Known about the structure:
Layout: H1 4-7, H2 11-15, H3 21-42, H4 45-52, H5 56-62, H6 65-73, H7 80-88, H8 95-107, H9 110-125, H10 127-148, H11 154-174, H12 178-182, H13 185-201
Helix pairs in contact: 3-4, 3-6, 3-10, 4-5, 7-10, 8-13, 9-10, 9-11, 10-11, 11-13
Amino acid sequence: MTSRAGSETTPKGRGRRPGGTDTRAVIVDAARKSFAAKGYDKASMRGIAREAGVDPALVHHYFEGKAGLFAATLDVPVNPAELIARITSGDVDRLGWRIVETFLTVWEPPERRDALVALVRSSMTSEEAARMLREFLGREVFGRIAASTGASDPQLRGALAASQMIGLVVARYVIRVPALADATREQLVERIGPVLQHHLVDRVPEQE
């Protein structure tokens, strides 16, 4: 007969253990390693569960899909799927503006900004980090936003929008170009919103 202690040393036993903060942390740590080694696209929820030594159902219990798990590895305060739904649910004529407004609302607080800056910095020196960021933004964020408009060439449109926002992060938070670093949220929304709108939708509403 297998002892209780012995059963806890197997992946199956660990997968059935009661959930807790430590279990969630183990899953996040395993996911971080898996994303770094395989990239966002090739990492799987089942593989991450196996690496963490838990049942796949437990991973789904804690995280709403792969995008939510990836967000947890970056300490993102909200689920990306919720942000995408918020951005794409409104009037398409204000899509570009909503992207900038939503982005700044999430990332402007200093305690959240540090995680974003760390990711962008690491992507400049690490191919693994660059691949994770590239695949995540392309598939889960800007790719979905661009596809929601029904416009042609969604992959190119999404890539152009992503390049604009990554450039904003680098100039505002990493290099800290003075005028851009000091600009208000409202100024950035009104200046950058039309650019994203053009990339994603083509038509830019006339300003009143």
